[in-house]
Automatic annotation (TrEMBL):
Residues 1-80 are annotated as: Disordered. GO terms for cellular component: RNA polymerase I complex; RNA polymerase II, core complex; RNA polymerase III complex. Belongs to the archaeal Rpo6/eukaryotic RPB6 RNA polymerase subunit family. This is DNA-directed RNA polymerases I, II, and III subunit RPABC2. PANTHER family: DNA-DIRECTED RNA POLYMERASE SUBUNIT K, DNA-DIRECTED RNA POLYMERASES I, II, AND III SUBUNIT RPABC2. Residues 71-80 have a biased composition (Basic and acidic residues).
Length: 154
């Protein structure tokens, strides 16, 4: 190996001129080749993310809990909502910003424009007339959530 200084004075190693087949087959210094069966016997997880049973067959991992079906189970019904029907200033800001962005990207406007061209002013007018087609999702501390439409919020 040749030790050389680069243009900024940094030192780096150049690659050898040729590789031998032994370079590819032998493990790096200090490493041992371990059979996957031995690794499983020692209690280490399989690197391919496969769970093995006692008789050596692969077993399916448990299904994740963050699926769409699991999320739908956590939705609170409209008649059992516990949060206030008032839109917070943060929800208002996010709704107006999102709707103004949609309008600026040529989404259909749901109110009479009357010469208005500013997307934010159009979004404010849509909110005032309760025409914004967005839903506010409020997450609760227990992991459930409530969905409120902009028409429902005061």
């Amino acid at each position: 190996m040749i030790l050389d200084e680069g243009p900024a004075g940094d030192e780096y190693d150049e690659a050898p001129e040729s590789f031998t087949p032994e370079d590819y087959e032998s493990p790096a210094a200090g490493q041992d080749i371990v059979d996957p069966e031995e690794r499983r016997a020692e209690g280490e997880p399989d690197p391919n993310n496969i769970v093995h049973s006692e008789n050596g067959k692969a077993v399916n991992k448990p299904t994740p809990t963050n699926t769409v079906a699991a999320q739908k189970d956590k939705k609170v019904d409209k008649d059992k909502r516990m949060t206030t029907p008032y839109m917070t200033k943060y929800e208002r800001a996010r709704i107006l910003g999102t709707r103004a962005l949609q309008i600026s990207m040529n989404a259909p406007v749901l109110v009479d424009l009357e010469g208005e061209t500013d997307p934010l002013q159009i979004a404010i007018k849509e909110l005032r007339e309760k025409k914004i087609p967005l839903v506010v999702r409020r997450y609760l501390p227990d992991g459930c959530y409530e969905d409120w439409t902009c028409e429902e919020l005061l």
